[in-house]
Design a protein that fits this description.
about 475 residues; alpha+beta; Ribosomal Protein S5, domain 2; eight-stranded mixed β-sheet; four-stranded antiparallel β-sheet; 14 helices; about 40% helix; about 20% strand
């Protein structure tokens, strides 16, 4: 997947700036300490292949991806490394810590025959669970990537076997697309070791299936597209009705988007996310019923909520969608939603209207955000930047109030930043990605004053709550752009 258009790239910031742009060309990063540590757990020969996949910062759009919205996303410097080495003993060895047995965790060993059914078909996630219950999440991601690649033909075979060592740089809490990143880095490293060429769309599909089937996150493909294809320091515009990259916007040097890792993710995050998704698809089904009932020319309607404008939703649909409904009552009247990744819980009361409403408004906010950046670049009017920031605050509020995907710690960070405001060069902030904790995206000027305000806010949070946070200022390219390197 290639962006259909690129906005002109300005000259990079001075090298000593804390906001200096990442290099646009693939970097020689295999000499870093992170990779050097991984290599200690593998023998020198045969050749080893290493791939790096970035995390992802959701700037606007977020969960509205699964209703076809525009999603704006940025690959971040937090990343996962995967080192792969071919074997000749028909085993797969996965070291999730990259430290061999020195940290007390023994690598997991699979016979290649364990990866296939009696009929010679690579096992799926359910089959793997029966054979390998209790694996850590990192090993599970690697195994999922290998098996989904085998099942789809992305990798034809793994004759002889593999050693796989995994490492990371940065935090791992919350939503930074780590599952997609591990899967993508595994695919890239294995493909390089086996002298294969990865098809970008097939790689995206494998990464999404790892998230959906192996990690039980009912998300779309935005994470995978970003970690595989994201450009450094570029705001990717992903149209999620087709998952086409509609553009890659380079922020001007005077602006920055940074990530704050709040170091937490609520234990009930998956369940909350799933229930929000289910309620949204309930609303989408009702919108479809209303459109068909009203009749008329409906050629514009293709089943995506992103097709409905805010005005049309308010005037035509909002009051005809129930505020809440018990699952069994909904199924009794309307049937299942048709969403393959969720099922309606008969005893749960779903808040249908507010969840549906979020998706309508979020798509509009994402489009307006891009328009604001374009207007600011064209006219130099700072009011457009202030408007863009307010859209982020609106998105954050909607995550918490309309969707119930908020979090006390991320709320506190956003509140502290908003209190410091435009006078300190901070325009906007919002919870990122799947909600329920994790990352906060911050839109600001690339100035020392703005960074001081951010640090001051985070120090105030730590003094009040004892919680520490991490700041991510830089970006790196997606794994398919960087490519794997042989050592």
């Amino acid at each position: 997947m290639k962006p259909e258009q690129d906005i002109a790239v300005k000259q990079p910031a001075r090298k000593d700036s804390p906001f200096a742009r990442s290099a646009r060309e693939p970097q020689l990063w295999t000499s870093s300490k992170s990779v050097s540590d991984l290599l200690q757990s593998l023998p020198d020969k045969p050749a080893r292949c290493v791939a790096r996949a970035p995390g992802r910062l959701d700037v606007m759009g977020g969960i509205a991806e699964y209703t076809g919205a525009l999603v704006l996303t940025l690959p971040i410097a937090e990343h996962s490394y995967v080192v792969v080495q071919l074997r000749n003993d028909d085993t797969i060895v996965v070291d999730p810590t990259g430290k061999g047995s020195s940290d007390g965790h023994r690598p997991t060993v699979f016979e290649i025959s364990q990866l296939y059914t009696a009929k010679g078909v690579p096992v799926d996630a359910d089959g793997a669970r029966k054979q390998a219950a209790g694996l850590d999440e990192t090993t599970w991601c690697v195994l999922g990537a290998l098996l989904e690649a085998l099942r789809s033909g992305v990798i034809p075979e793994l004759s002889g076997g593999l050693s796989v060592a995994v490492g990371s740089a940065g935090g791992s809490a919350g939503d930074s697309a780590r599952g997609s990143g591990l899967a993508g880095a595994t695919l890239a490293a294995v493909a390089s070791a086996c002298d294969l060429t990865l098809d970008p769309q097939s790689a995206v599909a494998v990464c999404q299936r790892v998230e959906n089937d192996w990690l039980d996150w009912p998300i779309g493909a935005a994470d995978a597209v970003c970690v595989l294809n994201g450009e450094p320091d570029a705001l990717m515009q992903l149209q999620c009705d087709s998952y086409n990259i509609a553009g890659a916007t380079m922020l001007p040097d005077e602006l920055a988007i940074i990530g704050i890792d709040c170091g937490n993710c609520r234990e009930d995050a998956r369940e909350k996310y799933r229930r929000v998704r289910t309620a949204t698809f309930m609303g989408q089904l009702l919108v479809d019923r209303i459109i068909n009932y009203d009749g008329g020319n409906c050629q514009w309607w293709d089943g995506h909520l992103s097709r409905i404008s805010v005005n049309d939703f308010v005037e035509r649909f909002r009051d005809r969608i129930p505020t809440r409904m018990k699952g069994k009552d909904f199924v009794g009247r309307f049937g299942e939603t048709g969403d393959a990744l969720t099922m309606i819980d008969p005893d749960y009361v779903y808040k249908i209207r507010s969840r549906t409403e979020h998706h309508i408004y979020e798509h509009a906010r994402a489009r307006q955000f891009v328009e604001c950046l374009s207007r600011a670049a064209r006219t130099g009017d700072d009011r457009a930047l202030v408007e863009a920031g307010e859209l982020m605050y609106g998105s954050h509020w909607s995550y918490g109030q309309r969707c119930g995907l908020g979090d006390v710690r991320t709320d506190a960070v956003v509140s502290l930043l908003r209190g410091r405001g435009v006078e300190n060069d901070i325009y906007g902030a919002k919870i990122s990605g799947r909600g329920c904790g994790g990352f906060v995206a911050v839109f600001m000027r690339a100035t020392d004053r703005a960074m001081s305000a951010v640090e001051d806010a985070l120090q105030a949070l730590q003094a009040k709550t004892g919680h520490q946070t991490g700041v991510i200022r830089s970006s790196c390219a997606g794994v398919l752009l960087t490519g794997a390197q042989q050592l």
